[in-house]
User: Fold this.
Amino acid sequence: MAWDYQHHPDEYVEIIAEVFYDPERRKNGVRPVAGELFSQDMKIECARKIREYPLGTKVRLRVVKTDKEGGRPFLYSSYKWEHTVV
Assistant:
């Protein structure tokens, strides 16, 4: 697995996430499932392939909390990294 070196590899955590319909963006998004380390309000930037799964599909992937130039925090998982449908 190649790492995004803006963050130390130890900062990434494995979580279960789900595909959901995001009304703000009017398309599917990915968020942590209830009970995970991060709130369901946090969106995950990840591979398009994951967002194309049917609504409700759950995946295991590695994420790190980040933001873009002080914007709203979100979770990031590289599109190059493997994920597992659970």
About this structure: The longest strand covers residues 13-22. The radius of gyration is 12 Å. The helical segments are 48-51. Confidence is low (pLDDT under 50) at residues 1-5.
